[in-house]
Specification:
CATH class: Alpha Beta
Number of strands: 12
CATH topology: TIM Barrel
Strand order of the largest sheet: 1-4-5-8-9-10-11-12
Bound molecules: ligand PBG
Order of helices and strands: HEEEHEHEEEHEHEHHEHEHHEH
Radius of gyration: 20 Å
Distance between the termini: 40 Å
Number of domains: 1
Strand content: 15-25%
Helix content: 25-40%
Largest sheet: 8 strands, parallel, barrel
Length: 322
Amino acid sequence: MFPTSRMRRLRQPKIRDLVRETELTHNDLIYPMFVGEGDAKPIEIKFMPGQFRYPLSMIADEAKAVAELGIPAIILFGIPSRKDEVGSSAYDSNGVIQKAIMAIKDELGDELLVITDVCLCEYMTHGHCGIVENKKILNDPTLELLAKTAVSHAQAGADIVAPSGMMDGMVDAIRTALEDGGFQDTLIMSYAVKYASSFYGPFREAAESGYAFGDRSTYQMDPANSDEALREVELDIAEGADIVMVKPALPYLDILYRVKSEFGVPTAAYSVSGEYAMLKAASQKGWLDEKAAVMESLLAIKRAGADMILTYFAKDAAEWLK
Ligand code: PBG
């Protein structure tokens, strides 16, 4: 009781550092990168100032710059030149992602972990994350294509594959295919808890993955639900996920906290395009101090339970942490 207990005693200079519970380091960061197959030069993403789509000819050099900042991993998204109804460019051994992985691995080898987003939406004419029949997104026929895509990424040299389509059984299908293909050391980072969120808007513009009809609510989660998130994670762990992800991050810190507390497995948080856009826009207007707001947000995500954070601010944060 006051005055014997004075919480402010712990907030004095240096003491404050001694008692700090959470620390953010460059080892916590994963940088998302976009590769445009048909692009000849970098294209700035309209709603994400400071973020670019890079052509294949530049991706290895850009990845090298990320590695030099001490960031351990990137996650790659591809914008293919050709889309169809079965997403065939997604599992083409000569596809945009496969070529990007090879270029990066040629340049950097083990110096940078390459994670790949495994989803079909960028590769489908209709922009949905699975095979479509009569305006329905079919689960089981999609699994085979996701498994083929993941194996082709592993073949090209990906260290971690990250299925993001929210199809039931996707982790099991991919794990089985990876084992059959001899890729027992390739990890799976599952987008286990992915909400149907409006915060993906800027990404869809960047990745040209907007959908032609409906929305993603028959496969991505309802933002109102929390218990359901735990069921998703439980299933993905049972199917063989090495790392589980919660996405988005900032509006879903309660979910992150529950997932980490309940399962204690390596947990990633994806601070998505809309979170970047919010912080960036307010900073550009002079309404927020960018560095302070970004570092506080990343720390909060870590404090809530994230072991690693996928963030478009990774390069800035790594600079600021120096
Ligand atoms: C692909 C995918 C999306 C994101 C990551 N992977 C878009 C979506 O589901 O519509 C969003 C990332 C972001 O907003 O930064 N399925």
